[in-house]
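Appendix C. Worked example: Thioredoxin domain-containing protein
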Amino acid sequence: MKIIKVGAIWCKECLVMKPMWVEIEKEIPELNTEYFDFDMDNDKIKKYEIKNVPSFIFLDKEGQEFLRLNGVQNKDDLIKIIKDNIDK
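Step 2, the predicted output written as structure tokens:
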């Protein structure tokens, strides 16, 4: 599983989520994440059809999207989703 995180420096919700993701990534070191900036990574934004920030796209081992979350998320909920799907 891989998680694509999309944010922007002007996004207040993104600033809330950033330290939370740092904590999650420390707790689950095998987690594979990648960050894209909404204003700078235009090719990725178009590829994944990002309309809102923050956005979190969960991909399986084949690179197929199986979940997309937008906005501020609860840390415990994210950890549960990750642990339930880490082997996808």
